[in-house]
Write a structure and sequence with these properties.
Number of helices of chain A: 13
Number of strands of chain B: 11
Strand order of the largest sheet of chain A: 2-3-8-5-7-6
GO molecular function, one term (chain B): ATP binding
Order of helices and strands of chain A: HHEHEEHEEHEEEHEHEHHHHEEHH
InterPro entries (chain B): AAA+_ATPase, ABC_transporter-like_ATP-bd, ABC_transporter-like_CS, ABC_transpr_LolD-like, MacB-like_ATP-bd, P-loop_NTPase
Largest interface: A-B, 26 and 32 residues
Distance between the termini of chain B: 21 Å
Helix content of chain B: 25-40%
Radius of gyration of chain B: 17 Å
Strand content of chain A: 15-25%
Number of domains of chain A: 2
Oligomer: heterodimer
Keywords (chain B): ATP-binding, Nucleotide-binding, Transport
Helix content of chain A: 40-55%
Domain ABC transporter (chain B): 4-231
Pfam families (chain B): ABC_tran (PF00005)
Shape of chain A: elongated
Largest sheet of chain A: 6 strands, mixed, barrel
Structural class of chain A: alpha+beta
Number of strands of chain A: 12
Structural class of chain B: alpha/beta
Amino acid sequence: MFNIFNLAFRNLRRYMRRTLLTSTLITLGVVAVLLFISIAGSFKNMMIGQVTDSMLGHMQVHKKGYMASMDSLPLDKNMKGKQLQKVTDELDQNSNIEAYSMRIKLGAMFSNYKETTNIRLNAVNPEQELKTVPMLAKRIIEGKKEGLIAKGEILVPELIAKGMKVKIGDSIVLVATNKDGSVNAQPFVVRGILEGISGPGGRDGVIHIHDAKSLLRINDNGVSEIAIRLKNIKTMESDFAGLKQNIGSLKNKMDKPVFEIHTWKKLSPFFNIARMIDLMTLFIKVMLVAIVLVSIMNVMIMAVYERINEIGTIAAIGTVPNKILSLFVVEGFLLGCFGTFIGVIISLVSIAAMNASKISFDFGRQKGLLLSPTIGATDVITISLIVIGISVLASLQPAWKAARMDPITALRHV
Amino acid sequence: MPVVEAKQLEKTYIAGDIAVKAIQNVSFTIESASFVSFVGPSGSGKSTLLNMIGCLDPPTKGSLQVVGKDITILTRKQAAIFRGEHIGFVFQDFNLIPVLTVFENIEYPLLMVQNWPKKRRTEQVNTLLKAVGMADQGHKFPSQISGGQKQRVAVARALVTNASLVLADEPTANLDRTTANHIIELMKNMRDEFGTSFIFSTHDPKIVNNAETIFTLEDGQLLKNGGGNHV
């Protein structure tokens, strides 16, 4: 086998023009696939980051049944008392959790003393919230970002601020109905205007959790949801499985689950977009790999055609068909390895160059987003193995043809 | 032991509905270390006969023993192995591999067919290069040497595996008269030095005279009752 590798390598070296042509095709294919994966991955990660780091967190815990009636922001499905304590104890003990934030979600009437509209609100503890969704402060497009929110203040969603013509420092009134049906009102000062983003909670205003409790006349420690931030989003599935096991399995006296826990994938419609990006990436990969396959097959068929006389000669002098087959397949394999190696080097250098040059771009209303393409070792290895495998596959048919060639016919070929 | 023994050999090609008899009822015997020529006009069946002796084309009928082996029953793979072990080929168009040097062309059968170790390969190739007078040309590519030199390299490649039999189909057809005579002389010398039987085909009467045994073919049949005309 070593002799076949040796001879195949020598053939590739001597048929330099053909080798360079085929390798270039393979290299271009590998570069295109790897750069596409890294850039598409960068966009996807950026969008996931927007969703998780400025709004949802990586996971959320609710009382069982809350998600099903989330649109009506039910206050009777808050977690409280011992139930809540069990959850926070579990979260405190889990070393994979970076932070968590307890929220009360409520609906209210928003009045600027002239007009009234309805508003959805997130009542948060600013310290917990900033640790859990650190990019939330960046969504404050007007007003003070530091500290997020203080008692008596409100961050008004952009659309409501425009519609109701409120500015920073204006006084407004929130009117809310508590779970017992009584109505209460409370004045607030507009601290900032909050940029709206797509997805659940993306157009909610923000108030301090103490204000929500006084507005809703809640005397206990009840909260609507707990948003969780993990230390590493890559371990989310295993962390989720662990938390689901520990928190999701807690049962009430009627032996029914008390809590439900979901990852951002379940909570945000963006997950479907992310899946579409993945699907698109897969299609592009398949297309590029198909191009590589057809290119190599074409070049190898031409190579066999050009070398018919040579094949006839080596067959006549006693080279068995299997060795002829192996020779051409090994040539395809070496071409694949060479083209892939160069392609990987070029791709990694290009990715490093893109990161070093800090390319920024605008996406919708978001300005100066930094393109930070990355590629995982798994992707590089997978693509390399696929392309090398495809190179071998593409060589098989021409190699088979060469091996099956009748020596007399081949020798007569001009 | 005869190196080739053919009895009642026939080869028929089917072209559409027509059966063409390329070889008909041919019997002959060639002893080892012979220098034999098959002569005859184009289309007389010389190449077909050589192809059959070289296990490249099986006969339609008859028996054919080469180096004591019935080659009519060999499979494609067995035939390739047999060729690699016992038969060398010299072609009219030299058929050297263009991207290999003279040395590598001669080395090829030892490397790919017989798997000789490198040191032994190198010694054998150098011996053959010297024997065919190409000792200082080993590094050159086929495109850098003359037709006569190419055929010398082809003879060396045919002999490098210590073949019992070398088949040369019109080996001088693409060479000028002087070079052709040199090649025939070289093959004769190689026969003397290595004890290899040489069978070649030609339709050039001036080259034929160099053969020690001549078989004349016409329309696929051997003249003179198939017997060799010893010169």
